[in-house]
């Protein structure tokens, strides 16, 4: 098989490898990286491919082994070896476990801010929040639909201002 034929075959099979890469990584960017690594390894090792055998299976094997190798490197990078007598292995990762107390505090602040709204804004806002459509709110409150939209907009604006401390800075 010539280099051109091999390259053409790799290109044709790349689309069938994408779902497998997604299954392994569960992330689009990581899947694209894995696809690229697989294709580079396959192309640089084309002399190891035996013509007449299943190229697709060979590519799947390269992808699986590349994924495993990358995963093992990632785990090793986050593992410290304790050199004391006990020889503990400690995985240090960027994963943080929180107990939810901050979420509860935020929700308390949100409810408090909603309670501070004037009833004229709070009622349509809460109805919309609970799933009512604009026209249903308008019928129930016997006000025009434009007024409903305006009051919900004003309520959101006031809540946004009141809860400014929760704005994420990127």
From TrEMBL:
Keywords: Sigma factor, Transcription, Transcription regulation
Gene Ontology molecular function, alphabetical: DNA binding; sigma factor activity
Domain RNA polymerase sigma-70 region: 17-73
GO biological process, any: DNA-templated transcription initiation
Ranges where the RNA polymerase sigma factor 70 region 4 type domain occurs: 109-159
Pfam families: Sigma70_r2 (PF04542), Sigma70_r4_2 (PF08281)
InterPro entries attached to this UniProt entry: RNA_pol_sigma-70-like, RNA_pol_sigma-70_dom, RNA_pol_sigma70_r2, RNA_pol_sigma70_r4_t2, RNA_pol_sigma_r2, RNA_pol_sigma_r3/r4-like, WH-like_DNA-bd_sf
Keyword Transcription: yes
Gene3D superfamilies membership: 1.10.1740.10, Winged helix-like DNA-binding domain superfamily/Winged helix DNA-binding domain (1.10.10.10)
Family of this protein: Belongs to the sigma-70 factor family. ECF subfamily.
Designated name of the protein: RNA polymerase sigma-70 factor, ECF subfamily
Organism this protein belongs to: Algoriphagus halophilus
């Amino acid at each position: 098989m010539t280099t051109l034929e091999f390259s053409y075959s790799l290109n044709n099979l790349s689309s069938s490898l994408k779902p497998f890469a997604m299954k392994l990584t569960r992330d689009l960017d990581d899947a694209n990286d894995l696809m690229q690594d697989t294709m580079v390894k396959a192309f640089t090792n084309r002399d190891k491919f035996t013509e007449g055998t299943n190229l697709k299976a060979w590519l799947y094997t390269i992808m699986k082994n590349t994924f495993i190798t990358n995963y093992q490197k990632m785990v090793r990078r986050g593992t410290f070896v304790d050199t004391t007598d006990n020889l503990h292995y400690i995985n240090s990762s960027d994963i943080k476990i929180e107990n939810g107390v901050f979420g509860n505090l935020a929700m308390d602040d949100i409810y408090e801010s909603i309670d501070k709204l004037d009833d004229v804004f709070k009622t349509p806002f809460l109805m919309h929040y609970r799933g009512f459509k604009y026209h249903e709110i308008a019928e129930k409150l016997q006000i025009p639909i434009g007024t409903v939209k305006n009051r919900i907009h004003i309520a959101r604006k006031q809540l946004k201002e009141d809860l400014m401390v929760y704005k994420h800075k990127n």
